[in-house]
Amino acid sequence: MAGKVSSDLGSATAAVSQFNTGKFSSQHFSLRESNISGMKSAEKISNSIIGDLSKLERGIKKQADKFPKLAAAIEARDKQDAASLANKSWGL
Asked: What is the distance between the alpha carbons of residues 46 and 40, in angstroms, rounded to a whole number?
C-alpha cells in the first residue's frame, strides 16, 4: 500500500471525501428476452450481488466518516505534546 500515514485533519478529510457511495445501488441487470433458465438465474444472482456490494459500500463509508474526527483528536493531542515539549514540561 503506497501512501503516507498522517494524523492531520486535512489529510483525513481529503481521503474520506474521495469515497463515493451510490455507484452500485443504481445498477440493475435485466434479461428481458432470454428464456434460458441459467441466464435468468445469473440475472437474479447479479442483482443480489449488487445489493450486497451496495450494503458493503455503505458500511465502509460509515466507518470512513469516523476518520476525520479521530484525526482531529490526534492532531490536538500532537499539538499539546509539542507545546509541552517546547515548554520542557512533558513527562516531568
From this structure: 10
**Phi, psi for residue 58 in degrees, rounded to 5:** -65, -40
Q: How is the chain split among helix, strand and coil, in percent rounded to 5?
A: 60, 0, 40
Does pTM top 0.70 for this prediction? no
Which region holds residue 34: left if phi is over 0, alpha if psi is between -120 and 50, else beta? beta
Q: What percent of the chain has pLDDT over 70?
A: 72
Cα-Cα-Cα-Cα dihedral sign, residues 7, 10, 13, 14:
negative
pLDDT tens digits, 36-47:
788 778 888 888
Contact 60, 19 (CB under 8 A): yes
Sequence-separated (6 or more) residues with CB below 8 Å from residue 68: 9, 12, 13, 16
State how far Cα 2 lies from the chain centre: 17
